[in-house]
Amino acid sequence: MKQGLSLRVSQHLALTPQLQQSIRLLQLSTLELSQEVDQMLDDNPFLELSEERAEREDFGLTQADATVSEGDRETEFAPNSIADYAASTSDSSQNNDEVTPLSGDEGPNWEGDGTTDTAPDDGEWGGEAKARANNLGDDGATDATELARTAESLQAHLHRQALRLRLSAEDQAALRFLIESLNDDGYLEDTLEDLARSLNPADEEQLEDLVHHFTVALGLLHSLEPVGVGARHLAECLRLQIDSHLMNDKGSQQEAWRVALGICAHPMELLARRDIKRLVQLGAGSDALVREAIALIARLEPKPGRRFIDVERNIVVPDVLVVPLSKPGGGLQPKFRVQLNPEVMPRLRVHDIYANVLRNHRGNGKDSASHAALQQRLQEARWFIKNIQQRFDTILRVSTAIVERQKSFFTHGELAMRPLVLREIADELGLHESTISRVTTAKYMATPFGTFELKYFFGSGLGTDTGGNASSTAVRALIKQFIAAENAKKPLSDNQISEMLKEQGIECARRTVAKYREGLKIAPASLRKAL
């Protein structure tokens, strides 16, 4: 092997810390952005939240699409003025996803041009928004009505009932232990023997004594409300509820409830499939009684603890608001205004006092290193504000392009959705597809028909008789409409729905219909059929 030296010249774009931060902020959700802002406020002394309302700079699509001069383009990554950013968003965002990684030996460099002067627009950005708004209220200001709405847990509900029972100390402890061992659905997943062994009994005699106490406690648990709590499996849960109906309901349905009890003694697969013929053959009862019993079972609660589950209240805060400016009709095409939601825009500014002190104090000698570090932190704060501006600019531009392409949806609903792919928006805005993907992930738009993730407006197309395409979202909506209008005694099969779509001019195979139906969480025809 012959060794030698050679020179090679190549060009590439480096993923600078500024671009890394810009890309990261772009893909964050509203909640994650709020957390990022809070973290930056804690770390950087030059960044602060403005509590006072300041005059808001011109900001929006007009500035985002404005022509950028050559001089501005050269100084884009080392600005003193935050206000100049809005005019260069469209050009700088094109490079976000077409860069190569920064080499490992290059550390973060936020120095920019090195100036520490307070820029005229270093002040507040997002002046219409409330500080740290994102449904994250102050910890000390809890609404009394919110406390009143706090749901009681299943365990607390059962413990409260257990206090009314006169039990020995051992049985009371065993019942409390079983209550705390229930899962969210109200089921006891572990066997009594396993629960007893988890207490590390000294010998087999103590183990048997624990199992005995747990057996007594289980019977007591089954007597508590909600009926069916403490069951080990679905069949037992249903049997407990049926026994309760047999004990309390003395009407004409007694025989049907007895048949329902017999059905639960057979494999649950037969009940799930509504296999009436097989159940009749197994001696569950006559055809009419089996049908009536299955209808009664359908009214039971398979998860007794469901209503006690403290579901986390994740309220979606839209990033973009779409407001209709005119009503459809009169021969005029409806118009919509697309705007950012001021509630999700943080009010950030560079701390004027600290920046002025740093500007007036020129470090020399021993203070030069500290001065350079503070200078870098100031530039980092400015870049953070600029990157947040760029994030919202890009979201606004992409959202406006989506609304322009999906005007039929905003006028008529999901049945009028047209096929749309990421590349169409990327080509229109001059951005990369991966940038559009980041923008449309975990970002939400409030529309006249509800709040949707931006990704909702993208979908593949199905061929039509006219040679055009129909959006898969519109096809799903059409399938839902067909099923909603079907005869409950003769529900539509997937093949029949496929034929109905063909009558509408949409080529959709039976397998595709089944896939869309399952995506809509709609049961097959055999389970939708009324008994």
Tell me what the structure shows.
Among the domains are: 154-222, no CATH class; 234-308; 461-528, Orthogonal Bundle (Arc Repressor Mutant, subunit A). 46% of the residues lie in helices and 6% in strands. It has 24 helices and 8 strands. It has helices at residues 17-27, 30-43, 61-64, 70-74, 89-92, 144-148, 154-162, 169-180, 192-197, 204-222, 234-248, 254-263, 268-272, 276-281, 287-297, 352-360, 368-405, 407-412, 422-429, 433-440, 472-484, 494-503, 510-519, 525-528, and strands at 47-49, 320-324, 336-340, 348-350, 444-447, 450-453, 461-463, 469-471. The chain has a 4-stranded mixed beta sheet with strand order 3-2-5-6, with helices on one face. A hairpin with a 2-residue loop joins strand 5 (444-447) and strand 6 (450-453).
- General form: extended
Give the low-pLDDT segments. Answer: 53-107, 113-120, 127-142, 144-148
Strands across the major sheet, in which order? 3-2-5-6
Helix segment count? 24
N- and C-termini, Cα separation: 83 Å
The proportion of residues in beta strands is: 5-15%
